[in-house]
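WARN  no MSA supplied for this record, continuing single-sequence
INFO  ligand: nicotinamide-adenine-dinucleotide
INFO  echoing inputs
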Amino acid sequence: MSDTTPPTERLKVLVVGAGAMGSQIALVAALAGHDVALADVDADALDRADRQLRERMSQQVAKGRRAAADVAAAFDRLALHTDPAAGAEDADLVIEAVVEDLDVKRELFATLGQVCRADTILASNTSSFVPSRLADAAPHPERFVNLHFFNPALVMRCVEVVRGPDTSDDVAARSVAFVEGLGKQPVVLEKEINGFIANRILNAVRDEAIRLHEAGIASVESIDLACRTALGYPMGPFELMDLTGIDIGYRTKLARHAETNDPADLPSRTVTDLVEAGHLGRKTGRGFYTYDTPDQTTGA
Ligand SMILES: NC(=O)c1ccc[n+]([C@@H]2O[C@H](COP(=O)([O-])OP(=O)(O)OC[C@H]3O[C@@H](n4cnc5c(N)ncnc54)[C@H](O)[C@@H]3O)[C@@H](O)[C@H]2O)c1
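INFO  complex generated
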């Protein structure tokens, strides 16, 4: 009934940031048998996370996908805190999932570095910053690694384990064992690179789809059709951009351009026009496609 795998070792895990990612990562770890502290500076975010996680688990129990006893035990192992360093002195592993702001993350790791043991693994779930941008914020950069979960973390199996230049073999191996113990699939990057693996490939496909469309080679519908029927994608790149929110990819491109200054990293004309017109995809009722009613549950 339960799809969780018992952990080889019961760890004390601190997850900092109770938003879309951190809340689900924390529950994944608790379901796998670890003792988890979930911390957020915003008490409302913790309340929201608790409510959403409990609703989601009740639905899974009602559908027979999880045993009620497993879920109850997981919530017993999950404690909520408004102090971001709660329990950090005992933690075996810290997973940071706070806002995507380098200064906020570095400040948090500096604080954690003063409290955590020297052998505590410090991990970030960031999508944008390679380990070397964060690892030196705390002492012992060899214990730093990126553990990049995908959204929704309760469902998606892949976790990219991104080694920085200083990450030790021991920390990489313990990180892989932790991810396997969650019942997830670790994918190790031996060297850091912006975007990691999955998002780089996704972005390359998206950029090529936009280029084909802008060159007048084929319609949005035809390009999506080719991806679905020839490549076996569950949805085409334009359908996916509409689902995740066109503004998200637009902002990612602008951030990348701010770092590289390479004009090739700027958002495309088509995407810029859509964002400026407020056509952000499903959430506004229009993006590359038009929808009958806006869907406020989509987008990040
Ligand atoms: N959303 C996604 O699809 C996705 C996927 C993979 C990775 N990520 C990464 O996960 C991280 C979090 O993303 P999210 O979408 O969950 O963000 P979110 O905005 O939903 O949540 C961020 C949370 O961090 C909290 N926070 C901010 N500063 C804090 C601090 N100093 N201490 C404690 N809590 C603090 C906020 O109150 C908020 O609840 C980001 O680094 C992002 O790149 C996001």
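The pocket of nicotinamide-adenine-dinucleotide is lined by residues 16-22, 39-42, 45, 84, 97-100, 104, 108, 125-128, 149-151, 300 (CB under 6 Å).
INFO  checksum written, moving to next record
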